[in-house]
Amino acid sequence: MLILVPIILYQLFLIYRSQLLLYKELDQFSQALHYRDFSRNFNTGTNSELGPLYQNFNKISRLFQQVSRDKETQYQYLQKILELVNTGILSYESDSREIIWMNESLKNMLDMPYIKNLNSFAKRDENLYQAIDSLRPGQSKITTILSKKLSVKVLLSATAFQTNGIRYQLIAFQNINEALDETESKAWQKLLSVLTHEIMNSIAPISSLADTIKNRLSSLDKRLDTDNGLADLELGISTIKRRSEGLLKFAETYRNLNKITKPNLQPVYVRDLFENLHSLMQPTLLQKNIELDIILKDPNLILKADTTLIEQVLINLLVNAIDAVKNIPNPIITLNAEFINDKTIVRINDNGVGIEEDVLDKIFIPFFSTRKNGSGIGLTLCKQIMMLHGGNIQVVSKTGEGTSFILQF
Question: Which pTM value belongs to this model?
Fold first, then answer.
């Protein structure tokens, strides 16, 4: 007993120490998994009894390390894809409305670095907030984003997903300005082509016939016309001929909209465009006592454009601005150009009467004009020229405060 008891106690101590070591190693292994620390390597040669266990620990650790690496790679890959796409992406928690993530395209579109909560949209753009708030998963709707720099029409699409019991909402912001403008422009071009063709084919014979009848009337002996019937008839025929020619000229003017097919794009300094415009319009501005401010932070700003066509656009917009401020005290028109988000932006601002909201969506439509003597061709032509340059034209206006036309190249 004196010999066996110490041996048994020593064996029990060894078992206890082994179990204690095992528990310690298990705790360290679980801690490493918990904190995703897969750098720990268990030495399988120091303890022959725990060697197989250590080998399994190392295998599990390497497996988790590979899974974690693959997951991080997929995450980074997805992040890069979402940053490269032009579509804005917004993710937020449905209940707390806390914004989880928004990509660079959306930040540029909204002109803001980051937003913590969806409710912050209400302070910046109430219409956009209402559009997002009312959007349900699977739905889509078109709305307009108004920022200090640009006005953009976007298609909002929503979807939802749930993980760890938390529900998330995902909103896609797709810029459809160019697509809408291109579709609308092509539709108007087809309509104008048909209308002008039909008008000219119908009016040309009437004008020719009226001219023939007028010549025949002129050759008759006026002395036989005792009751001035021939004179009245000749006046009526002259009126028909004059109006027919007017309609032909009208149709020819609108047919010219479809003749511009390919601009001659060349690098041009924006400062040169502004200087030429200032020299051309200065007499009119002085006569009407209108102040013209030109703001160009970068004198070396260049855009690729057809100088003749773009000057026509700027002249049309400046003439409209002059008309808008003619009855305003302290009239001011501002020309501004800057480079934003890989685009050259040119603005023509005025502090005039502004454009009424119900008219704002119609001003680029052919035949539409708010001026009595307007032909309704100016802004339509401006829009087509900008589309031929691969850009677009937008307008932001508030009644009584002024109007801003925005050219994006």
Answer: 0.53
